[in-house]
Design a protein that fits this description.
Blueprint: H1 2-20, H2 25-35, H3 43-61, E1 66-72, H4 78-92, E2 100-106, H5 114-123, E3 126-134, E4 137-143, E5 151-153, E6 168-172, H6 175-180, E7 187-192, H7 207-227
Parallel strand pairs: 1-2, 1-6, 6-7
Antiparallel strand pairs: 3-4, 4-5
Helix pairs in contact: 3-7, 4-7, 5-7
């Protein structure tokens, strides 16, 4: 029995490591640093993330595709960061994009803010502008892993055709969106997990530091979320 458990543990660790190694080296290194910061997350926020972890675990056990839609007001900052880091966190902990996909949207469409893009680039993501939805709403292609199609980041309403229409988890990451969307049509789970808007720092000397801190905070909590997934 002990030998069997060791074999299972080794297989799980090897599989997780092999998956993590497909991430870009800078992103993998960042994730390893983040893993040492889970104690910085409050118990209240951990418990909230456990609700989402239980939902994801149950979907995976039933061999159902998992779809996570992160929603804020303008789909320009927090929801975009959460979409990126949830997809990265899933891969880092051995959940393929075929099994889990992340999305984001707003109660209105604006643009993925250039400061959000800059913060992700400072982490090490490879990002290129690749067209426009409107003249003020560019499409960014973000690469986070080798031999994996990039994520397309652009601002959209949460019900946009690019997002899932049913059987998804809606994660509200700002209080305004939480108030504006008491019901998210088509969602199998609705969860509020808010973050402070880094927009308050725009144009100030603290801008870069605030965006980097917000990016790291969301990364930390999304990685913690996927560290709690039970795939068996």
């Amino acid at each position: 029995m002990r030998t069997l458990l060791l074999v299972i543990s080794f297989y799980y660790f090897s599989n997780m490591l092999a998956t993590a190694q497909t991430l870009l080296p800078t992103i993998e290194q960042y994730c390893r640093q983040i893993e040492n910061e889970f104690e910085l997350i409050s118990q209240e926020r951990k418990e909230n993330l456990h609700v989402l972890a239980s939902y994801i675990s149950e979907q995976l056990k039933q061999n159902k595709a998992v779809q996570l839609n992160f929603i804020c007001t303008h789909n320009s900052r927090r929801s975009q960061l959460a979409q990126v880091w949830a997809q990265v966190g899933a891969m880092y902990y051995g959940i393929s994009r075929e099994k889990l996909q992340t999305f984001s949207g707003g109660t209105e469409a604006t643009a993925c803010n250039e400061r959000t893009i800059a913060a992700l680039q400072r982490v090490g993501f490879q990002i290129v502008k690749n067209g426009f939805i409107t003249p003020t709403n560019p499409i960014y292609h973000l690469t986070y892993a080798q031999e994996t199609s990039p994520l397309a980041l652009f601002s959209k309403v949460y019900s946009d055709a690019a997002n899932p229409q049913r059987d998804f988890a809606a994660v509200l990451v700002c209080s305004q969106a939480d108030e504006a969307c008491p019901i998210v049509r088509g969602a199998a789970l609705r969860l509020y997990h808010g973050y402070e808007d880094p927009k308050k720092s725009d144009g100030t000397p603290q801008e870069t530091a605030v965006y980097d801190a917000t990016c790291r905070l969301i990364a930390r909590e999304m990685l913690y979320l996927f560290s709690r997934i039970d795939k068996d």
